[in-house]
Amino acid sequence: MTVAALLAHARRLLAGAGREAAAAAPGAGLDAEVLLAHVLGVSRARLRSHPEAAVESAREQRFLELLGRRARGEPLAYLTGQREFWSLGLAVTPAVLIPRPETELLVERALALGGGAGTRVADLGTGSGAIVLALAHERPQWRLLATDVSAAALAVARANAAALGRSSVEFLEGSWFEPLGARRFELIVSNPPYVAADDPALADPALAHEPRLALTAGADALAHLRTLARGAAAYLAPGGWLALEHGAAQAPAVRAELVAAGFAHVRSHRDLAGHERTTEGQR
Questions:
Q1: Which residue positions in the chain have pLDDT lower than 70?
Q2: Fewer CB within 10 A of the end CB, N or C, for the chain?
Q3: Domain 85-282, architecture per CATH
């Protein structure tokens, strides 16, 4: 088949595959192009400029296989193994949460709160390493450390750091503050799981492919946010900041936790959709 024929077939499949493809349908054309460009190892612009090009049988079959998985709701990022975050190309696997655009707000806040060269920063629950590597890209003179309870996630994060030339970032395995020992930081950031286990949102076909460990805190959606708010002061230098990402309706509860834990200058910030998505406080 030609490029044009394959793309036309893919658009029809993704746009009309029924309820399972609900997440794929609005962007059927884009998804089809991304998948075919990935399989052929070319740019989307190349596909558009050479629609008459024939696709060899083996690549055609590979494309159709990935297309079927996308139609069944598997996230595009897992199919291509890549996701862009903060203009950085990151490898992703089903061992890590796919980085979301709204998490860039947490990076923005961290850059605003951090200091000069030598600022010590910890990213807790790093997953793919998206946040800490974005900070390393913008502030290579900072002393950056990232933790995760998942060894598989840390393997992805370390691979991303190596691919981006950020070998100075330190990665430690363990739950939240556990790996930090007696270290102190000027800034701690985290995007923890903050979805309740019974939240209907978890029924989304796309989320079915992402690690539950990175999505839900269990029955209490605030459990991990509460742990971070209550424990962070012991690991912050005087005047240090804690910045957290949370659900769109959780800001009041997170602010209350930070105030109760003795933090000052507690405030929340809105993402581009107008939701209070991050909250910060100063020791």
A1: 17-26
A2: N
A3: 3-Layer(aba) Sandwich (3.40)
